[in-house]
Amino acid sequence: xxxxxxxxxxxxxxxxxxxxxKQHKASHSYDQYHKKDYxxxxxxxxxKIYLIEKGKVKIGYYTEDGQEVVKAILTxxxxxxxxxxxxxxxxxxxxxxxxxSTSICPVDVGIMHDLMRDNRSLSVRIYKLIGFRIKRLExxxxxxxxxxxxxxVREFLKELAEDYGHCCPETGDTVIEHPYTQKDIAHLIGTxxxxxxxxxxxxxxxxxxxxxxxxxxxxxxx
Length: 222
Known about the structure:
Blueprint: H1 12-15, H2 22-25, E1 31-33, E2 38-40, E3 48-54, E4 57-62, E5 68-74, E6 79-80, E7 94-97, E8 102-108, H3 109-118, H4 120-146, H5 149-164, E9 165-167, E10 174-177, H6 182-189, H7 193-205, E11 209-211, E12 215-218
Antiparallel strand pairs: 1-8, 2-7, 3-6, 3-8, 4-5, 4-7, 9-10, 10-12, 11-12
Helix pairs in contact: 3-4, 6-7
């Protein structure tokens, strides 16, 4: 199953990436980033949308006391910085490369508006994507504020199943092949890595999950 934030059957690089268009190809290039490189900072001018060709990107912000809050970790085929489409002038979040070889395709907001104006289906899907992300973020913040860590883990596993899961015919398990590390997931649900690991081991003892580095098997119904 494709990640739910991927634009359904649209190939982003065929439709959006400027190097596919003659008028932009000569002047367009991918941007390369190493681990912990910032793609943009909070308060930077918002004049581009970004497509991930390779690697992972962390989206977040810092509290007044300097604590990092992670809003999302995105992977190949996904877009970020999309609030610029809605008229955001300055960034309210940072974007940072999580991998040592992240490749990003930047798209000027003006070019994106032209593409959306010429393609109604693309326009509708991008607005749906933005709406979905807002709802998911609201839900995740609600869980962090009002639910215990075990509930947050269980709900996030269900979210992963929606994005990356498929049913194993032999066992009936939901198999989740995902791009996240334990540290990534702990950041996303507002807990520590040891706490997340302890909860997952408890679920494993209860025969509710089985897991390895890049795969989780859910034994409970989602």
